[in-house]
Specification:
The strands form four sheets. This protein has a five-stranded parallel beta sheet, sandwiched between helices. Strands 8-9-10-11 form a four-stranded antiparallel beta sheet, covered by helices on one side. A three-stranded antiparallel beta sheet has the order 12-14-13. Strand 6, helix 4 and strand 7 form a beta-alpha-beta unit. It is of the alpha/beta class. The chain starts with a strand and ends with a strand. Helix 6 runs antiparallel to helix 7. About 40% of the residues lie in helices and about 25% in strands. It is elongated and about 55 Å long.
């Protein structure tokens, strides 16, 4: 189970990461706003976000990441005034823990929030397993390249939402370390449709692509 942990206090992050990993969780630690945004479209089962970050605000960060993630979110922070707590829940947060805190309490709350989390998503006869990084059609594995899987998983994590072409291109570039142009993306989308033999990937003219639920 994967957790995105955004915390700039090295003493706290070191202790929390150690405890989480000892309890079987995989942790991606980001120490600031900018680095957390770069991880925003990865697959996570839970987000733990500090409100006060050196280069931004945790509330704004959560609002931006929320557009790419369906994972539950916990604010872990020293800010304990009523207005901040109310704002967190109004934004859609699932829990709010103030510092100092006990690891037993944090682990208990994480367990409650993630016990029903699924690592798979299904779209008609197509299933994607995020843990295995694999895609199946009617139970049979479909061979996608790393880039094809990356594109499809981005769409699958945000069903019914239009993902801008620029955003997809940016993440492809991250993988290949080479510039990928718009025409290349069009080719990849066409290949994915052909391999999956599906029409659920819709082109939103002038914007990007959307994966429709069936």
């Amino acid at each position: 189970m994967n957790i995105l942990f955004v915390e700039d206090n090295k003493m706290i992050s070191k202790g929390v990461c150690y405890s989480l990993e000892q309890n079987g969780y995989a942790v991606t630690l980001c120490e600031n706003f900018e680095s957390a945004l770069k991880c925003a479209d990865e697959s996570f089962d839970l987000m733990i976000i500090d409100i006060t970050l050196p280069d931004g605000n945790g509330f704004e960060l959560y609002q931006r990441i929320k557009k790419l993630q369906n994972a539950p979110a916990v604010f872990l922070t020293a800010v304990d005034d009523e207005d901040s707590i109310v704002k967190a829940f109004d934004l859609g947060a699932d829990d709010y823990i103030t510092k100092p805190f006990s690891m037993r309490e944090l682990l208990a709350r994480i367990k409650r929030l993630t016990k029903n989390t699924s690592s798979t998503a299904r779209f008609g006869d197509i299933e994607i397993n995020f843990d295995e990084k694999a895609v199946y059609k009617n139970g049979t594995a479909v061979e996608l390249t790393a880039l094809e899987y990356k594109i499809f998983s981005m769409l699958a994590k945000n069903p019914s939402q239009t993902i801008p072409r620029e955003r997809i291109l940016e993440k492809i570039w991250d993988i290949t370390d080479n510039y990928v142009n718009d025409n290349t993306l069009t080719v990849y989308i066409k290949r994915i449709r052909q391999k999956l033999d599906t029409d659920i990937i819709k082109t939103v003219k002038g914007l990007g692509y959307r994966l429709e639920q069936k």
